[in-house]
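Quick one:
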Amino acid sequence: MRKKTIAVDMDGVLADIETQLIEEYNKEYGMNLSKEGIQGLSEEEAFKERALLHRILNKGNFFRNLPVMPDAVESLQELQKNFEIFIVSAATEFPISLAEKVEWLAEHFPFIKWENIVLCGSKRIINTDYLIDDHCKNLDYCMGKPIMFTAFHNINKTHHLRVNNWKEAVAVLNETL
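Output:
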């Protein structure tokens, strides 16, 4: 019998991009943004200096040094017992991130095989039973069941099943077995 499949986004789901992005943005722009202060804002509203944002995201080692989201490693290990896990990242927007993301995954998630890592431009082609992502632009096209991982920019979105953390994600997915 085939295991059900889960596609898991990286940035904002496995990797805590918010913390590092806010820190770098504040340092570069002299701002005082905080996680609490950007809740409910779109990425464009939170990070108004778009050129600076793109410069930060294209800086070497930005993606390589992101912190791991709490409980992410243990949660994927647990889910892997009953599901086939694919890591899916729309990484080609920031080409420097491609090798960094592969290295980051090898360090933090060595139990994910290279065959189960998909670095792409658009996630519309992903056909898994579930997609865990923080962006509606990806979840809206999900061919399976979309699961929205809470992030500052999606707090006010309500049209997908929401999980606030990895413990909730595991509970929701284990209910489907």
